[in-house]
Amino acid sequence: MLRMQQQVEGVVGGGIVAEAEEAAVYERVARMASGNAVVVFSASGCCMCHVVKRLLLGLGVGPTVYELDQMGGAGREIQAALAQLLPPGPGAGHHQQPPVPVVFVGGRLLGGVEKVMACHINGTLVPLLKDAGALWL
């Protein structure tokens, strides 16, 4: 939550109204992200989102999935907020990492597809999922 608040302060351009609206979006993201052991913010037609969801399901995790493209304007606001939370990808500016999927484990931001896959490959994903209560074995 503190990281999100810091992001709000760094991202918001000006005006008290805009700041309050941004803060409300970040608070909504924080509530959604902490609602289950594993939360995936996704887009229904995104192939990388599909890969992350299939990986988690294959590991035995039943994540809560929010399909942002099916949420209308609120989904676009959430996607914009999530894009601000993710670090810039390699070659930032031109080929930036897409803002979905975004995965939270135990209410904490894990990251996008690259971070999830890196954790899976280096063996740290399963312990994270166990610590969050998403896996029991």
Could you characterize what this model shows?
The chain is α+β, with helices and mostly antiparallel strands and 137 residues long. The chain has a single domain, classed as Glutaredoxin (3-Layer(aba) Sandwich), CATH 3.40.30. Helix content is 51%, strand content 12%. The chain is built from 6 helices and 4 strands, in the order ααβαβαββαα. A 4-stranded mixed β-sheet has the order 2-1-3-4, with helices on both faces. Helix 1 (2-11) runs antiparallel to helix 2 (16-33). Mean pLDDT is 85; it is low at 4-14.
First CA to last CA: what distance?
Answer: 29 Å
Average predicted local confidence, pLDDT: 85
The total domain count is: 1
Question: What Rg is obtained from the alpha carbons, in whole angstroms?
Answer: 15 Å
Low-pLDDT segments: 4-14
Name the shape in a single word. globular
Order of H and E elements: HHEHEHEEHH
Largest sheet: 4 strands, mixed
What is the helix content?
40-55%
CATH topology: Glutaredoxin
Keywords: Cytoplasm, Redox-active center
InterPro entries: GlrX-like_pln_2, Glutaredoxin, Thioredoxin-like_sf
Main location: cytoplasm
Domain Glutaredoxin: 38-109
